[in-house]
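R.M. (postdoc): so does anyone remember the format we settled on? I'll just put the C-alpha coordinates first.
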Protein backbone atom coordinates (compact mmCIF):
# COMPACT_ATOMS: atom_id res chain seq x y z
CA UNK A 1 0.00 0.00 0.00
CA UNK A 2 1.13 3.55 -0.69
CA UNK A 3 0.73 4.46 2.98
CA UNK A 4 3.09 1.67 4.09
CA UNK A 5 5.59 2.69 1.46
CA UNK A 6 5.50 6.25 2.72
CA UNK A 7 6.00 5.15 6.32
CA UNK A 8 9.07 3.18 5.31
CA UNK A 9 10.53 6.27 3.66
CA UNK A 10 9.80 8.34 6.75
CA UNK A 11 11.55 5.84 9.01
CA UNK A 12 14.59 5.87 6.77
CA UNK A 13 14.66 9.68 6.78
CA UNK A 14 14.42 9.79 10.57
CA UNK A 15 17.30 7.33 10.92
CA UNK A 16 19.43 9.41 8.57
CA UNK A 17 18.79 12.58 10.58
CA UNK A 18 20.49 11.21 13.69
CA UNK A 19 23.43 9.88 11.70
CA UNK A 20 23.85 13.19 9.84
CA UNK A 21 24.01 15.18 13.06
CA UNK A 22 26.33 12.68 14.77
CA UNK A 23 28.80 12.62 11.86
CA UNK A 24 28.63 16.39 11.50
CA UNK A 25 29.56 16.93 15.15
CA UNK A 26 32.35 14.34 15.12
CA UNK A 27 33.78 15.66 11.86
CA UNK A 28 33.50 19.35 12.68
CA UNK A 29 35.09 19.56 16.12
CA UNK A 30 36.62 22.99 16.72
CA UNK A 31 36.51 25.43 19.63
CA UNK A 32 33.53 25.10 21.97
CA UNK A 33 31.94 28.37 20.82
CA UNK A 34 32.27 27.39 17.17
CA UNK A 35 30.96 23.88 17.61
CA UNK A 36 27.89 25.10 19.52
CA UNK A 37 26.95 27.32 16.58
CA UNK A 38 27.72 24.52 14.14
CA UNK A 39 25.53 22.04 16.03
CA UNK A 40 22.61 24.50 16.02
CA UNK A 41 22.97 25.14 12.28
CA UNK A 42 23.56 21.49 11.38
CA UNK A 43 20.59 20.33 13.44
CA UNK A 44 18.36 23.08 12.10
CA UNK A 45 19.12 22.22 8.48
CA UNK A 46 18.90 18.44 8.98
CA UNK A 47 15.60 18.57 10.86
CA UNK A 48 14.11 21.10 8.43
CA UNK A 49 14.91 18.79 5.51
CA UNK A 50 13.59 15.74 7.39
CA UNK A 51 10.31 17.36 8.42
CA UNK A 52 9.74 18.66 4.90
CA UNK A 53 10.28 15.15 3.55
CA UNK A 54 7.94 13.51 6.08
CA UNK A 55 5.22 16.10 5.58
CA UNK A 56 3.97 15.88 9.17
CA UNK A 57 5.60 18.32 11.57
CA UNK A 58 3.34 17.66 14.56
CA UNK A 59 3.57 13.86 14.37
CA UNK A 60 7.24 13.49 13.49
CA UNK A 61 8.88 16.09 15.76
CA UNK A 62 9.04 13.58 18.64
CA UNK A 63 10.54 10.83 16.48
CA UNK A 64 13.08 12.98 14.68
CA UNK A 65 14.07 14.64 17.97
CA UNK A 66 14.71 11.31 19.66
CA UNK A 67 16.86 10.18 16.76
CA UNK A 68 18.83 13.43 16.50
CA UNK A 69 19.46 13.62 20.25
CA UNK A 70 20.74 10.04 20.25
CA UNK A 71 23.18 10.92 17.46
CA UNK A 72 24.33 14.06 19.28
CA UNK A 73 24.78 12.23 22.60
CA UNK A 74 26.88 9.52 20.94
CA UNK A 75 28.94 12.20 19.20
CA UNK A 76 29.47 14.05 22.49
CA UNK A 77 30.81 10.83 24.01
CA UNK A 78 33.19 10.34 21.09
CA UNK A 79 34.65 13.84 20.86
CA UNK A 80 34.31 14.98 24.47
CA UNK A 81 31.95 17.91 23.96
CA UNK A 82 29.85 18.58 27.04
CA UNK A 83 26.60 16.62 27.18
CA UNK A 84 24.53 19.58 28.41
CA UNK A 85 26.05 21.96 25.85
CA UNK A 86 25.56 19.55 22.96
CA UNK A 87 21.95 18.78 23.82
CA UNK A 88 21.23 22.47 24.39
CA UNK A 89 22.47 23.29 20.89
CA UNK A 90 20.48 20.41 19.36
CA UNK A 91 17.30 21.60 21.11
CA UNK A 92 17.81 25.10 19.71
CA UNK A 93 18.30 23.72 16.21
CA UNK A 94 15.17 21.55 16.36
CA UNK A 95 12.97 24.36 17.70
CA UNK A 96 14.19 26.73 14.99
CA UNK A 97 13.68 24.05 12.32
CA UNK A 98 10.06 23.55 13.38
CA UNK A 99 9.56 27.30 13.02
CA UNK A 100 11.17 27.18 9.57
CA UNK A 101 8.57 24.68 8.35
CA UNK A 102 5.63 26.48 9.92
CA UNK A 103 5.14 24.25 12.96
CA UNK A 104 3.90 25.23 16.42
CA UNK A 105 6.87 26.14 18.64
CA UNK A 106 5.14 25.38 21.93
CA UNK A 107 4.00 21.93 20.80
CA UNK A 108 7.47 21.30 19.37
CA UNK A 109 9.12 22.24 22.68
CA UNK A 110 7.17 19.52 24.46
CA UNK A 111 7.85 16.92 21.76
CA UNK A 112 11.54 17.61 21.36
CA UNK A 113 12.34 17.48 25.08
CA UNK A 114 10.29 14.31 25.47
CA UNK A 115 12.26 12.86 22.54
CA UNK A 116 15.54 13.93 24.15
CA UNK A 117 14.75 12.14 27.42
CA UNK A 118 13.56 8.98 25.68
CA UNK A 119 16.55 8.95 23.36
CA UNK A 120 18.96 9.37 26.28
CA UNK A 121 17.31 6.49 28.13
CA UNK A 122 17.50 4.21 25.09
CA UNK A 123 21.28 4.54 24.85
CA UNK A 124 21.96 4.61 28.60
CA UNK A 125 22.89 8.27 28.85
CA UNK A 126 22.18 10.63 31.77
CA UNK A 127 18.51 11.55 31.27
CA UNK A 128 18.62 14.37 33.82
CA UNK A 129 21.55 16.16 32.17
CA UNK A 130 20.05 15.67 28.72
CA UNK A 131 16.73 17.08 29.97
CA UNK A 132 18.56 20.06 31.45
CA UNK A 133 20.36 20.77 28.18
CA UNK A 134 17.21 20.39 26.09
CA UNK A 135 15.07 22.63 28.31
CA UNK A 136 17.83 25.27 28.44
CA UNK A 137 18.09 25.21 24.64
CA UNK A 138 14.34 25.67 24.24
CA UNK A 139 14.33 28.62 26.65
CA UNK A 140 17.27 30.30 24.88
CA UNK A 141 15.76 29.84 21.40
CA UNK A 142 12.16 30.74 22.33
CA UNK A 143 12.30 34.31 21.08
CA UNK A 144 13.81 33.34 17.74
CA UNK A 145 11.21 30.61 17.35
CA UNK A 146 8.37 33.08 17.79
CA UNK A 147 7.14 32.18 21.27
CA UNK A 148 7.61 33.58 24.78
CA UNK A 149 10.17 32.22 27.21
CA UNK A 150 7.47 31.37 29.77
CA UNK A 151 5.32 29.43 27.31
CA UNK A 152 8.31 27.60 25.82
CA UNK A 153 9.77 26.72 29.23
CA UNK A 154 6.47 25.37 30.51
CA UNK A 155 6.05 23.26 27.36
CA UNK A 156 9.64 21.99 27.60
CA UNK A 157 9.28 21.03 31.27
CA UNK A 158 6.05 19.19 30.44
CA UNK A 159 7.90 17.22 27.76
CA UNK A 160 10.75 16.41 30.14
CA UNK A 161 8.42 15.08 32.81
CA UNK A 162 6.36 13.08 30.29
CA UNK A 163 9.51 11.58 28.83
CA UNK A 164 10.85 10.73 32.28
CA UNK A 165 7.53 9.13 33.27
CA UNK A 166 7.85 6.71 30.36
CA UNK A 167 11.33 5.72 31.60
CA UNK A 168 10.60 5.14 35.30
CA UNK A 169 10.29 6.72 38.73
CA UNK A 170 14.06 7.14 39.21
CA UNK A 171 14.18 9.16 35.98
CA UNK A 172 11.22 11.29 37.10
CA UNK A 173 12.98 12.16 40.37
CA UNK A 174 16.33 12.90 38.71
CA UNK A 175 14.79 15.04 35.97
CA UNK A 176 12.59 16.95 38.40
CA UNK A 177 15.54 17.69 40.70
CA UNK A 178 17.74 19.06 37.92
CA UNK A 179 14.91 21.08 36.35
CA UNK A 180 13.95 22.78 39.61
CA UNK A 181 17.40 24.38 39.55
CA UNK A 182 17.34 25.00 35.79
CA UNK A 183 14.05 26.94 35.73
CA UNK A 184 14.32 28.46 39.21
CA UNK A 185 14.07 31.96 37.74
CA UNK A 186 10.71 31.15 36.15
CA UNK A 187 8.48 30.65 39.19
CA UNK A 188 5.32 29.80 37.27
CA UNK A 189 7.22 26.98 35.54
CA UNK A 190 9.05 25.74 38.63
CA UNK A 191 5.78 25.40 40.56
CA UNK A 192 4.65 22.72 38.12
CA UNK A 193 7.60 20.42 38.86
CA UNK A 194 8.34 20.95 42.53
CA UNK A 195 7.52 17.89 44.64
CA UNK A 196 3.81 17.94 45.34
CA UNK A 197 3.31 20.77 42.89
CA UNK A 198 2.36 18.86 39.77
CA UNK A 199 -0.88 20.10 38.33
CA UNK A 200 -1.27 22.71 41.07
CA UNK A 201 -2.14 26.32 40.34
CA UNK A 202 0.70 28.80 40.77
CA UNK A 203 0.71 30.31 44.25
CA UNK A 204 -0.35 33.94 44.67
CA UNK A 205 2.58 36.39 45.05
CA UNK A 206 2.15 36.80 48.81
CA UNK A 207 2.08 33.08 49.49
CA UNK A 208 5.76 32.36 48.88
CA UNK A 209 6.89 32.97 52.46
CA UNK A 210 4.03 30.90 53.88
CA UNK A 211 5.00 27.94 51.69
CA UNK A 212 8.48 27.87 53.15
CA UNK A 213 7.26 27.34 56.71
CA UNK A 214 7.03 23.64 57.65
CA UNK A 215 3.52 22.38 58.32
CA UNK A 216 2.68 21.04 61.74
CA UNK A 217 -0.05 18.48 62.19
Amino acid sequence: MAEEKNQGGVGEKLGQAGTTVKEGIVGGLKGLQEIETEIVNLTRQTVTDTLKATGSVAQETLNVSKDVFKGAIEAADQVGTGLVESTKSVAKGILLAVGDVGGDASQAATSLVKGAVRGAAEIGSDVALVAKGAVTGVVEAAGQAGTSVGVAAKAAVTGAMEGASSVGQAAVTAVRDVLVATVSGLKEVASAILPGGEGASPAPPGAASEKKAPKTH
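R.M.: ...and that's the designed sequence above, right after the C-alpha coordinates. Also worth knowing: The radius of gyration is 18 Å. The chain is about 75% helix and 0% strand.
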